[in-house]
Structures are given as structure tokens and as C-alpha cells.
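haha ok so turns out i had the wrong file open the whole time. this is the CORRECT one, sorry everyone. sequence first:
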Amino acid sequence: MSRFARLGNDLYEGRVSVDFVGRKWLWYAISSLIVAVAVFGLVGPKLNLGIEFEGGVEYRVSMPAGEADQDAVTDILNAVRDADIENVGTPQVNTSGENNIRVQTEPLTNAESEQLSDAIVEAAGVDDDAISRQLIGPSWGEQVADRALIGLGVFLVLVVLLIWAYFREWKMSVAAIVALAHDVIITVGVYALSGFEVTPATVTGVLTILGFSLYDTVVVFDKVRENTKNLAKSHKTYAEAANLAINQTLVRSINTSIVALLPVAALLYVSVTDVGSGALKDLSLSLFVGMAAGIYSSVFIATPLLVHMKQREARVQAEDARALRHHSRREADRFAHVPAYSESMPILDDPGVEEEPAPTGSGSTAVGGSRPVSPGAPGRVTAGERPASGRPVADRTSAGRPQPTRKPRSQRGKG
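then structure:
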């Protein structure tokens, strides 16, 4: 068995435990700091909304094989800035695939659009047929944003109702929603800080990560419900049982996360280095950041927050007090709770007892030739089973006299 598999077995059995619930204030502080940085990105740099949301003109220039490089991007960007067009705003020029360069500007008039198209063709050194132009209005982006918000609202309502109905616990719904909001804020904040363009593919990725984060949280909550079903029998507090649930699902969460993040990371790397801008890059970035945040929130935020809310219930407080009293009794008398013998139980010597050779006399005997065992007090024995005292039999005066014998019934009473 590998070390990782052995560690997973120890975590599941409770022999090794990471105190996630006990350090909840540390996780709250870390999450608050990350969320504060993300909010600062939304307020300061703000989101780089794509042309689909703000409207504008998009040019696509088809270049010969191998010429759509950074030098061509720089030449076209300088040509757009030198065209002296007032409404061009802050143009965005980047590669799109191996043979295309994309240019995006703010909305232009037909005359300004023609003037800018001629400048791009001259800077790129291509024919007029190699450039395409597309006018995009902001109304379509507004419709996408509105429908995304409606879909998000419906999703959150269904999530609350589903978790409440499945677990019979509204506090789990609240904890899951807080974890989802945590993931969305961090993902959107990363977009604002990195300057990545927000496109409809970004909205699709953000909606996708909600399901992934919720899935991991529900798995942990299901184990929490199983461990806290009968706290009186397990002699654990609610926090201890919930923390055990996190440790029991930790290895599974790590394996699932690695399997999910590796292909997304590969897509992100390929889309940034080779493909350039496009829907693939926007989708992969939102998925990667959202999945990583979802793994963190399901372990460090959702379950500790659930325990924080449950510990205020009178029933949970009474069960925790009973478990603590049980723990105190075990600490007072450690030998009152001896585990039952099993074949796999290791044989250990008592601490502080030195091994002595087994005595040759009839006194103490040794078990296994290692530890001496005292004879102890004699027990009750029947006739014929009493052990010999070991002393020689002394001569008595009655030894020479004839001893009475028991006559048969037929001879009794006769002289």
C-alpha cells in the first residue's frame, strides 16, 4: 500500500486528523482577505468587458502562415493609434489562432470604420479581401447578462430548496450558498485583476463552476450527516464528528480536484500561449479559478460555517456537554476503556516493567518468558484440587493407632 493510500485510510479511520473545524477563524481570515482583494479588483481596475457587452467594431485580419506574431500585432496597434480617429477609444489588438489577428474598437461611424480598415490593411501588408469587419451592438450583450443573472437566481433558489429537502437542514443550505458566493466573487475578481476579457464564454464558465462547487460541498455534507446521526452513541461532539467527515472525504476531494484541474490547466495553457484570445481562453480561465476556489470553500468554509451555526442549537449544546463529560471520565480512568482483543492488536510490554528471567521455583510463573506474573490470592477449590503446600508431612501420634473404618450397612449395629 502506498503512503498516500495509507494516509487516506488513517484519515478515514480517525487515526490521523487535520483540525479543519477548530481552526475556522484562520480560514475565515484567509477567505476574507482573498475576497477583499477580489472586491478591490472589481472597484479599482474593474472588469474588462468584451465587445459583446459594450458594443463596437471587430476586425479580423487573415495573415499568411507564420506571420501572425507579436511584431504584426505591434504594427497594427500603432497604425490604429496613428489613424487619428477620435471614437476609436482604447483599441485591443491580439492574435486569434495561428493566422488571424483580431482588432476591437469602440463603436464607429461608417466613414471612421472604412478609414480604420484601410490603415489596418496597410500596416498588415495584406489585400482588402483579407480583412473582415463586424459591427456589434451593446443590446445583445445586455440580453446575455440579463439572462445570466436570471439563470443564476433560479439556480440559487433551486439549490436552497434541494439541499433543504435532502438534508432536512436549512443551515446546510445557507452554508452552501455562502460557499458559492465565495467562489463567484473570487473568480470574477481574478478576471478584474488579470485584465482578461469578459465574454459570453466567461459567463458560461462561471455558471459551470457553481455546479462543481456545490457537488463537492454536498458530498462533505452527506458524510457530516452520517457522522452526526447518533452523537450520543459515538461520544463525539458535533464539531468532532463534522471534522472527521472532512478528513474522511479529504483524499477523495484531492483526487477529484487533480483529475478535474489538470485538463482545464492544459486548456488554459494552450489557449493563452498558442491560440491567443478567444472563447476557449475565457472558458478555461473561469473554470480553473472557480474549481480551485470551490475545492477550498467546500473544505475550509462550508463545513466550519455549518458547525458554527449548529453549535448554537440547544440540542447540539446538550449533546456536546454529554460528550465532554464522557471525555473527562476517560481521562480520569484511562484503564476503564480497554479495547477488545483482536488478532491484529500489537503485543506491547507494560511501560516501566523490566524483563526478568522466569523463576525456576514453584512461585511466580512467566507468560511467554518475558513478564513475571504474581501467583495472586488463592481461589476457592474443591476437594482433591487443593494444591500441595510444599512442606514435608510431620509424624503424628495418631499414626500408630488403628483408624476407624466404615462398615457396610448390613454389619452396622452388630458386635
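The chain has two domains: 3-48+140-323, 56-136.
again sry for the mixup
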